[in-house]
């Protein structure tokens, strides 16, 4: 990108990049462009890329996590279009040999024409207005439960975790949700697809959800934008789940959900927090929170629809002794 912007072989007014883009245009990038941000801004462009955590920090701040979610929502279209090319045409999945580069763009244009002709174009989600309303409502919201967890050092407190199943009395009062509720809460379907895989992994094809849960014994309330311990009875329930990372086998995350048993539907979920990289987010939530909500609020009530992605891979390796 820096080379494109500073092409010394031609005047700036003849640079194709500057002819196509105008000053003030917004460029939504990934972290690979971090070294080119200053050059882009010097030429009058507005560049956004997902923020990184601060030095010596283990998580993004709530503000940074929300900003990251906004950017990745916009970049999703770019990534899925790239995916269309790679899934439909094997030649674009791998690196090209130098001697093929002269023909590559011609091949790319042919592939684009075939995709445009035979595949359905993207359209706005029917939940777009709900997504925008959720963003406007939560973009500047503080993660109250994160403050409570860190203040009381709950991540380091020992607890007797038990395995979840559909009839476990520890979570029997968790509100039943619709799939539409989950889509609106997650601001899209991406995290729900990951949640489906999480459920499949944790049920181990046995039907018992093996994410471990601990029900907080103290009464908790939300007063003056703070989650505090309450001396009187409330309908708020705090559960803590222990979930293994899908990227690092030895890593475990603690996921917290505060819900109100007197309220039905998605409105019952008052606060959420996770100890993972994006766990402070208030725009939707991380995949760990979604996976617990997905199972407790929807999947265990719709077991016929709880399938297992890539189930056939279980039978690739055959035990010859048996």
Automatic annotation (TrEMBL):
<keyword id="KW-0862">Zinc</keyword>
<keyword id="KW-0479">Metal-binding</keyword>
<keyword id="KW-0863">Zinc-finger</keyword>
<dbReference type="GO" id="GO:0008270">
    <property type="term" value="F:zinc ion binding"/>
</dbReference>
<feature type="domain" description="SWIM-type">
    <location>
        <begin position="259"/>
        <end position="297"/>
    </location>
</feature>
<protein>
    <recommendedName>
        <fullName>SWIM-type domain-containing protein</fullName>
    </recommendedName>
</protein>
<dbReference type="InterPro" id="IPR007527">
    <property type="entry name" value="Znf_SWIM"/>
</dbReference>
